[in-house]
Amino acid sequence: MATTNLQYILNPFPRPTFSPKLLATKAPKMVFKCGCSNNSSTRVGEDVFSLTSSSECDIDYLGQSTKGDLNVNLQHLETFGLDGEATLEGPIEQVARLEAEEAGGLLRELGITSPSAARLSSRGIFCSRTLNLRSISAIGYDMDYTLIHYNVMAWEGRAYDYCMENLKNMGFPVEGLAFDPDLVIRGLVIDKQKGNLVKADRFGYVKRAMHGTKMLSTQAVSEIYGRELVDLRKESQWEFLNTLFSVSEAVAYMQMVDRLDDGAIPADLGPLDYKGLYKAVGKALFRAHVEGQLKSEIMSKPELFVEPDPELPLALLDQKEAGKKLLLITNSDYQYTDKMMRHSFNRFLPNDICWRDLFDMVIVSARKPEFFQMSHPLYEVVTSEGLMRPCFKARTGGLYSGGSAQMVENFLNIHGDEILYVGDHIYTDYNALILSRGHRATVIELINQKEVVGDLFNQLRLALQRRIKGRPAQTLAATNMDDRELTESMQKLLIVMQRLDEKIAPLLEADGELFNKRWGFLSRAGLWDKSHLMRQIEKYADIYTSRVSNFLNYTPFMYFRSQEQTLAHDSYSHDRSEQNGE
Q1: Residues facing 211 on adjacent strands
Q2: Which residues lie in coiled coils (predicted)?
Q3: CB burial of residue 421 (10 Å; 0-12, 13-18, 19+)
């Protein structure tokens, strides 16, 4: 998100001076009759406006709760010299157009990027389902890869190192292997039965695949998978790479598949198939995680593994001061959580605020995803060493271990739709998509050319077929073509299409290389379709973004409205409207 020193938005600033060009207009505008004095000691914001409470809220025309909306408090207007009448000079469409123009100008004068402009940035927040942030009472944050941004090469690289060391101790041949961060991207799926790594489209059809560390041809992918769908519910076969350590685990597994295929794995490790090999790699990585090898190293030198984000703590401070209850819910233990949060947050917070001051509740060792599905005992962490005692009633500002989402909702006395859970940011490929626009435009232009040429070729082919059967062609012009003219035209068009295919094929193969040479774009599967990861995000996430600090440009009062979803026949409707002059 390209903005100018966003942190200043958080601080009080003088009332902006409105330039004459914004107000000197005869167009319709909203007028309040006001006789209030500048010397009034009353706080206008508190008495003129009121918040819609949970008991008073309604559902708006987009199906969102109006809880948290600001209202004009009419019964208090007389206190400030207002007669309670507000008039609009002109139709609301004209008034709104003027107000929007003035608002846009004022945003530019203040140096604030508007949400509509921010959506065009790689730091934008993108909406899958309409969400009124004002109606959200509590926001629960994950820590790793959400509030804490790790250097992927450093973090995943060291996780890989510990995993391979444990595999070596188990008797696996790991000599000569090294971490390759470009081999795997998150959002891919491991086929544990075949030793493959696949990229599927939104429907689950496999579009690209790799066996071991070798990419498979399009023909091989078709022969292996055909119409088989990736079904993430079949956990015995498919493993979705969307969790912590997933990149390092997948790199290690695909490299060990090569060793298994080469017959390099000792027989005394037992008869191993691809699924058994996956379990062995997972066990080696799990040991590194549970035994604390990696986290101990990170705690000793956090500056080597953590990428600081000065805007992130300020975005959370905005939300807290807006009345949101903030929760930190992490699977990490308390000592690691405290060390990482102090390193990443405290130095960027004003007025000696520490990271704990931001959160109404902190839950460590939460055991997600079970935290959202099952109920575990709740313990209170009572010492800096992490000692705990059983807890039966949570308190504001408390530090806890275990528990469940239901316990949190009961403690806060709010419903599930009033809580927004934020977790595990995705690695956005937005910048790569922007930089690839020229490449993609070239491919699309060539495909469109082939489509037009192909349309004519198909019509001539049908005319030839009818001629052979002794029937007239579709049109008089095609009927009047002699045999030689018809066949020569078809030959020329066929050669053009073949040459176009030779040009298009490598361009399509290279599509997405700016993000990853093997797998292409994270969000795309082929030129036109969404990836399976993108479908999962749309299915389960109301909004998605590259990092939490992107909230800083949107304010805690943002109404996120989902964009129009295009359908296959929308282009037909648009073309028909243009033909009719609409």
Answers
A1: 196, 214
A2: none
A3: middle
Phi, psi angle pair for 41, to nearest 5° = -90, -5
Chain centre to alpha carbon of residue 70: 29
Inter-residue contact 340 to 143 (CB < 8 Å): yes
Write the single-letter amino acid at 365. Answer: S
Residue 478 has pLDDT above 80, yes or no: no
Around Cβ 424, how many Cβ atoms within 10 Å? 13
* 4 three-class SS: coil
What is 140-148+307-422's CATH topology? Answer: Rossmann fold (3.40.50)
Structure tokens at 297: 């190293």
- Gap between the Cα atoms of 533 and 428, Å rounded: 12
For 519, which DSSP code? T
Taking only the tens place, the pLDDT of each residue in 281-326 is 999 998 887 778 888 999 999 999 999 999 999 999 999 999 999 9
The residue among 249, 246, 237, 250 whose CA lies nearest residue 204 is: 237
Q: In which order are the strands placed within the sheet that holds 189-191?
A: 214-215, 206-211, 196-200, 189-191, 238-240
d(Cα 297, Cα 315) in Å, to the nearest integer? Answer: 29
pLDDT value of residue 575: 57
- Listed by start position, the domains of the chain span 140-148+307-422, 152-302, 429-521
Asked whether the beta carbons of 114 and 104 are under 8 A apart, the reply is: yes
What are the pLDDT digits (tens) for 513-564? 777 788 887 777 877 788 888 888 888 889 988 889 999 888 899 999 887 7
Quickly list H helices, 180-245. Answer: 218-225
Q: State how far the Cα of 43 lies from the Cα of 45, in Å rounded to an integer.
A: 6
3-class DSSP assignment, residue 209 = strand
Residue pLDDT, tens place only, 33-57: 333 444 444 444 566 778 888 888 8
Encoding tokens for residue 560?
Answer: 């996120």
